[in-house]
């Protein structure tokens, strides 16, 4: 069974949308348009360090994009220097995993910060 790791902070408007899209994906899962998917709502990125799957499938918002995109190369991620624990984000954890020599396949489904959750969920189904 695949696991979709969903990141976002429901208390920050610009960061909460991935969880709305995940709810729509869950509806598709129960309708069987997506088979065998476990959706895990994540509050902290270090959960990825303990993930047992050979393939990590991640859903998160990406600032300044207009339509969903698929990233499969961790090097494409922009990371920043750690100044505080707040800067310890998904990108940083994935870069850390890469530097530790992880052999996991990583797929990041990036979505805009706003939009029609149902429509975007339908668009990203092809990558799940």
Commentary on this structure:
This protein has helices at 17-30, 90-99, 117-124; strands at 2-7, 37-42, 55-61, 69-71, 105-111. It is of the alpha/beta class and 128 residues long. It has a single domain (2-127), classed as Rossmann fold. The protein has a 5-stranded mixed sheet with strand order 2-1-3-5-4, covered by helices on one side. The termini are close together.
**Assembly form of the protein:** single chain
Pick out the low-confidence regions. 81-88
- CATH architecture grouping: 3-Layer(aba) Sandwich
Question: Could you please say which CATH topology applies here?
Answer: Rossmann fold
Order of helices and strands: EHEEEHEH
Mean pLDDT: 81
CATH superfamily: HybD-like
Number of domains: 1
User: Helicity level, as a percent range?
Assistant: 25-40%
Structural class: alpha/beta
Radius of gyration: 14 Å
Tally of contiguous helical segments: 3
Which CATH class applies here? Alpha Beta
**Order of strands, widest sheet:** 2-1-3-5-4
User: Span from first to last CA?
Assistant: 11 Å
Q: State which percent range the strand residues make up.
A: 15-25%
Record field, number of beta strands: 5
Overall morphology: globular
Largest sheet: 5 strands, mixed
Describe the secondary-structure layout.
Blueprint: E1 2-7, H1 17-30, E2 37-42, E3 55-61, E4 69-71, H2 90-99, E5 105-111, H3 117-124
Parallel strand pairs: 1-2, 1-3, 3-5
Antiparallel strand pairs: 4-5
Helix pairs in contact: 1-3
Quick summary:
By secondary structure, the protein is an alpha/beta fold. The protein has helices at residues 17-30, 90-99, 117-124; strands at 2-7, 37-42, 55-61, 69-71, 105-111.
